[in-house]
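#data-curation
PF: Archiving a pair of folding outputs for the training set. Convention for this channel: one message per protein, sequence first, C-alpha cells after, nothing in between. First:
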Amino acid sequence: MKERLLRLGRKLKEIDEDVQRHNDLLEVIKGDPSGIPDIVAKRRKDFTKEFFVHLHTVAESYYDNAEKQNELAKLGNTCLAAVQAYDDATESMEKLNAAELKFQDIINSPSLEAACRKIDSLAEKKELDSTLVMMITKAWSAAKESNMMKDEVKDVLYHLYKTAAGNLQRLVPKEIRIIKYLIRIEDPEEQLCALKDAFTPGEELEGTNVDNLYTTPEKLHTWIKTVVDAYHLSTEGTLIREARDMLNPEVIQKLEVLKTVVEKNFM
C-alpha cells in the first residue's frame, strides 16, 4: 500500500506541475492577447493538445459566467489559429528549402538526360512535389522572357519543366484525373458513355496529352463524395490535396450531378 501511495503521489505531483505550466502560459496569453502569434512563435512546443484541453476545462468551470467563458473560448480560438498559421509557415519553409536543394541538384547535373532521370527518380520515390515543380516552372518562365539567356539554356529549362510537369500529373490519383475529365463533358449522353468507358477494365495508358484509365464505380463515387463533403465542411484534408482546385461552387455543382449519375446507373 505504501508503494502504491508513493506512485500516486508522484503522479499527482506530475499532474500539478502540468497544470501549473498550463496556467502560467494561459496567464501570459491573457496578458497580451494581441501578441499571441509572437508567443506561439517563441513557445510553440508549449501549445500542446493537453494545454488546449486544460484551457477548455478552465473555460467550462465558469459555467455561471458566460462573459468569462466567451473570453476564454475566444482566446482558445485565437491560439489555435496562430498555431495553425505557424505550423503552415514552418511546413512551407521546410518544403521550400527541400525543393531548393533538389532543384540545385537537378540543375547541376552533367547532362539534360541525367537531369531528367533525377526528376523521374524523384517522382518514382514520391519526392516530386508541387513546390519543386513550381520552382522549375518559374525558372523556365523567367528564361523564356529573358533576352539575355542563351537558347540552349532555355531549351534545357523547357525540357526540365515538361518532364517535371508530366511526372507531377501522373502522381495525381487516377480517379481525380478521371473526374476532371468527366466534368468537362457538357452533354449528359456523352458523359454517360465516358463513365461506361471509365468503368470498363482494359489496358491503361498514360501519356502527355492522352490518358486511358479505368476504375470502379465505388472508388470513383468515394472520391467524388470526398471532394463534395470537404467543400461543404470547408476542409482540405490530405486525402484531397490533389483536388483543391475543384473546391469551388460551380465545380461542386457538377460533381453533385456526376455523383447522382454514378449512383443511379452503376451502383
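PF: Second:
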Amino acid sequence: MTSNAVPECLIDGQPANQVRVTDRGLSYGDGLFETLRVSQGSIALIDYHLARLQRGIQALRLQADIELIAEEWRDLAARMGAGVIKLTLTRGSGQRGYAIPADVRTVRIQQCFPPANYPEAHAREGIRLFSCATRLAHQPLLAGIKHLNRLEQVLARSEWNDPQYAEGLVCDIQGLVVECTMSNLFARQDGIWLTPSLAQCGVSGVMREYLMNEMRAHGEQVEEVELQHSALLNASELFCCNSLFGVWPIIALDRHQWPVGPHSRYAQALAEQVIK
C-alpha cells in the first residue's frame, strides 16, 4: 500500500468490497473479528488484540499470518490518525457442508471507519443498563474468543430502543451475570473487584484484560467469579468497559441505583491512559 489515501476496505491486502457467496464466514459464521481503536496514529492495546486473535485462530484451527495482520494494522493506523479498524477473518470459500475443505484459503478483511461517536455524558455521568431477557448458551470451546457467531448479542441488543439505556445486561442460561451486549462488566463488593468468569460463554474483552492486569499491579484485588445476579445488585460500584469507549460507570439497573464511585473513576483513568 503506497497511497496516502485510507481505503474503506481491504480484502487480502487489496482494495475491494466483495467476498464470494460461498465464503464460510457468510455461510456459517466460520471466522473471527477484532475491532480496534485508532488514536494519534496508533492502535490502543494492540498486543492484547493480537494475543486474543491468536487464541481464536488456534481455537478455530484457522490458517492466518499474525505478523502480516499486525503490519496492516499499524500501516492503516498511521494513515488514519484516528478511527476504528475492524478485522474480519473468515475460513474462506468452500462447497456446501460443514466439513472444512482441505485446500481452503483464509480471507482477511480490513475495514476502516471514522472514530466511534459515543456521548461524553456516558463516561462523565454514568449509564443505565437494560436487563436483557436473551440468555447466552454455554460453549466452552468458543468462550472468550470473538468468533463471528453473534446472534445472541444481536437478539439481546434488539430488545430495547429507548435511548435512556446505553447498554444491556446479559446473563447465561443459568441466570449468572456474564457481560453486557458490547462490553465487559466489573462489580465492586467488600473492597474487591469482581468480574464474571468467561469459562462457559462471553467475550474476553481486551480492555477487561488490561484493567485486570493494571488494577492488580496497583494493589487492587480482582477476582473472576461466577457472578450471581443478587451479588451484582449488592455491589457498591459497577462499570462496563471495552476498547472503544474505555470505562462507563453504571448508575442504574431496573430499580437499583449506584453512585459513580472513586474506584470506578480510577479504572476510568487507567483506561484513558491507553485510549487517549
